[in-house]
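protien #1 (seq + structre)
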Amino acid sequence: MSYQRIGDHTHHQYGTIAPHGKHTEGHKLGAGKYIKSMIYGGMDGVVSVFVSVATVEGGNVGIAIVIILGLAKLLSGAISMGVGDWMSTQAEVDNAVNEKRRETWECDNYIEGEIEEMVELYVQKGLSEPTARRLFEIFSRPQHRDLFVEMMMVDELGILPEQITQTPWKHGLVNFGSFLAFGCLPLLGYIGIVAIDRLNGKPLNTGSESETDRSSVEPFLVSLGLTIATLFFMGMLTGRFTGSSLLKGGFKTVLFGCIGAALGWGMSFVLHKLS
């Protein structure tokens, strides 16, 4: 994206440069730290529920059974994904806290060795040894000790400060909610058919011969369309947060989502034929 000048301000996707060199950065904080949980839960929800729908679609099971199986998958999957995200994030936080304690102890008991490690790392990055040594002799002073530990966490272990301050239950909740919100979309076509039939006084289609006068092709096509549209939306949302192409993100997510759905449906089809 090129720079765009409006009045005295220069705008770019990464921020705005105002007169006198004032710079407003375009970082997407706040909800951005939950984007992984949201995309992970939403994509798994819409794909897995659609595969459940597609798997039973070919059989004479009726719309009601499709909805029941879909809702069962929706709820169980949302709980599993939410709890899994919560526990994995908690493990990540616990590991980061433990490593910070270890690095702090090493600083308190063997600061010379820690300075040597950091000097070696930054010499490899391109600094001269005298410059690196002078730099970390300053950072290792008691008044800068927290900053020094933080630098060691990042440079030695690849652990960012934000990993310690994560709130695991919030990540789990976002994943759970995203799975439910996006995962319910493939079922809307079927739920809509049932709602219309009930309003018109028609019996619920359970798959028996006397109740299969309505084809389930139409709701399945609605389910397919909503699934593709949802995947495309999530891809664009990812592009919005990462600053990449919205269309590219949308098409890429649709592609991988469809591959995943096709593999899931193909496996169930093969197992059904072998049974």
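ok now protien #2
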Amino acid sequence: MDYLFQPLQILKTTKDCRRAKKYLKLLSKKLNHFPDRCTLKNGRYNVNFISSLGVSYMMICNENYPNVLAFCFLDELQKEFITTYEMKRINTAIRPYTLIEFDNFIQKTKQRYNNPRSLSTKLNLSEMQTEIKLRPPHQICASELGTVNGFTNSSVSKYKEIAHHQRLEPVTLSGIISCVLSLLCAALNLIRGFHAIEGCLQNEDDDFSYVLAFFLGTVACLYQCYLLLYGTLWRNLKSFLVFGLICLCNMYLYELRNLWQILFHVTIAVFATLQIRMRQPEGKCPDYNV
């Protein structure tokens, strides 16, 4: 759900302003492809937005408007919106302008932020300044929006799998079970790895590569749990690579494990990979303009 707020400052209808509004509309259709805090610079105007809990907050301001105040403005709107409305009501909004009453707060806040000199003395900007310094807004290029000079551009797709800024779907019961089983496999591999180390110390003829195989299997199982619980770049590809590593480790350990043990580990790895693939980022709600 995208809330497209009016410009923060009173903007003159110029070519740059019209272009900024055009970019804002284009961005509103592709917000889930970008990080949760971004800026698009367009001549004399900037388009800023933040996203959280499936809702995006956007604004246009002059290029000389302080960056920290712009994101403080969006952050204040976000906090008030989350406090005012329950997620159930937001998710069930089916018509444009359903939450139009929130515009009263937007206009009051906009008036305050249109006078930065008096406003800066009433706000504690240090927290936002530190946050922007540690995690600056992602700078979006106009070419990433896919409509430049009439030609489409697919470069925006590289952000499609950035999941650290997106909420994943809730973990299902089967996902929890797969995570527990993966932890069990990791524990079994770890125990067998320590036993293999003891065997190497007692018998120099034992192959130390078995120790590496057990510990690689442990790391792979733990990483499957991580991929299931948290979003990351190229998450699906990593899950298949980790699954391949688990299969290779079990093939290498064929002499130390019977067929049923190998099938147990591989089956759980397949189950965990499937759960990772099924737990995708939460889909965007339909676009609404306020």
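Confidence is low (pLDDT under 50) at residues 1-7, 148-165, 284-290.
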